[in-house]
Specification:
Length: about 80
């Protein structure tokens, strides 16, 4: 091989090495981003679930009060007779 060909081959290998390194960094970055995206989605879903649970708890409390009030009215009606 001539010196020119050797130099060209060496530069090509260097460039290919850099390309592979950048591709690996890109894959690693993409994997981290996907992991962060999954984490964010999990947090959002937990928040949504918590809101729904709180809402259901509030509805349960309202229903308990309404039942209690109806019970008091029935007791009042019974006492009046």
């Amino acid at each position: 091989m001539s010196q020119k060909e050797e130099r060209w081959e060496r530069e090509r290998k260097e460039i290919m090495g850099r390309v592979e390194k950048l591709e690996k960094e890109g894959r690693d970055r993409e994997e981290r981003m996907m992991g962060m995206k999954r984490s964010v989605e999990e947090v959002v879903e937990r928040g949504r679930s918590s809101k729904e649970e709180n809402r259901m708890g509030e509805l349960g409390e309202i229903q308990k009060r309404e039942v209690w009030q109806v019970g008091e009215k029935v007791e009042d009606l019974i006492r009046c007779r």
